[in-house]
């Protein structure tokens, strides 16, 4: 499904954890890292496509995440001719994307890269929000920069949420760190 200008509608997902680090997936059998993304099917809203792609690519359900924001409009990138399938040449220019910023409210262990018959990623990691984009394929870098820049305001607003709502996240994070054996972030119990 292409628009009249030759762009395929698509969603991009910036998933962040409680430390404001972002999810990076390594493409199967490649040394390229990227955010989850995928096409919008006919009749789907961008939000519906985002939840479908989230499930297909990294195994997360809607109850594992909270939407913090989305881009106001479409961000576009052109795909170099050598990357375009022969049957699409002449019609296809690239992708237009609505980007979503999500907060993981589930656990790291909820991430599963093997939920579809053709996995997109074979590894993943958390990285700083403003990670250098040199590991992203060159023709997507500008769109990544635009998306991160526009979505950053939603991340800042989420940090300013009332303390009571964030305390529950911090308690859960400390408990998970303790289970992983990295309890240095959790306060020591008072033994007096």
Could you characterize the architecture of this molecule?
- The protein is an alpha+beta fold and 192 residues long.
- Helices cover 26% and strands 26% of the residues.
- It has helices at 46-58, 141-159, 163-180; strands at residues 7-16, 22-27, 33-34, 37-39, 65-70, 75-78, 94-104, 121-127.
- The strands form two sheets. Strands 1, 4, 5, 6 and 7 form a five-stranded mixed β-sheet that branches. Strands 3-2-8 form a three-stranded antiparallel β-sheet, with no helix packed on it.
- The chain is globular, with a radius of gyration of 18 Å.
- The N and C termini lie far apart (67 Å).
- Mean pLDDT is 85; it is low at 174-192.
Helix segment count? 3
- Report the order of strands and helices: EEEEHEEEEHH
Mean pLDDT: 85
From the N-terminal CA to the C-terminal CA, the straight-line distance is 67 Å
Strand count, sense and barrel status of the largest sheet are:
5 strands, mixed
Strand residue percentage: 25-35%
The helicity comes to 25-40%
Number of strands: 8
Low confidence ranges? 174-192
Rough shape?
globular
- Rg computed from alpha carbons, rounded to a whole number of angstroms: 18 Å
Indicate the topology.
Layout lengths: L6 E10 L5 E6 L5 E2 L2 E3 L6 H13 L6 E6 L4 E4 L15 E11 L16 E7 L13 H19 L3 H18 L12
Summarize the model shown.
By secondary structure, the chain is α+β, with helices and mostly antiparallel strands. Helix content is 26%, strand content 26%.
């Amino acid at each position: 499904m292409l628009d009249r200008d030759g762009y395929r509608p698509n969603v991009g997902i910036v998933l962040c954890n409680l430390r404001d680090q972002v999810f990076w997936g390594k493409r199967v059998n490649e040394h390229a890292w990227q955010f989850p993304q995928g096409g919008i099917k006919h009749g789907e809203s961008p939000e519906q496509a985002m939840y479908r792609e989230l499930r297909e690519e990294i195994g997360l359900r809607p109850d594992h995440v909270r939407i913090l924001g989305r881009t106001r409009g479409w961000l576009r990138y052109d795909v170099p001719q050598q990357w375009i399938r022969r049957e699409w040449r002449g019609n296809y220019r690239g992708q237009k994307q609505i980007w979503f910023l999500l907060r993981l409210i589930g656990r790291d262990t909820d991430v599963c890269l093997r939920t579809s018959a053709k996995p997109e990623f074979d590894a993943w990691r958390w990285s700083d929000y403003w990670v250098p984009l040199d590991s992203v394929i060159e023709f997507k870098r500008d769109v990544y920069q635009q998306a991160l820049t526009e979505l950053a305001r939603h991340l800042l607003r989420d940090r300013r949420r009332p303390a009571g709502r964030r305390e529950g996240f911090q308690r859960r994070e400390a408990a998970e760190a303790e289970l992983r054996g990295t309890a240095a972030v959790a306060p020591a119990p008072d033994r007096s």
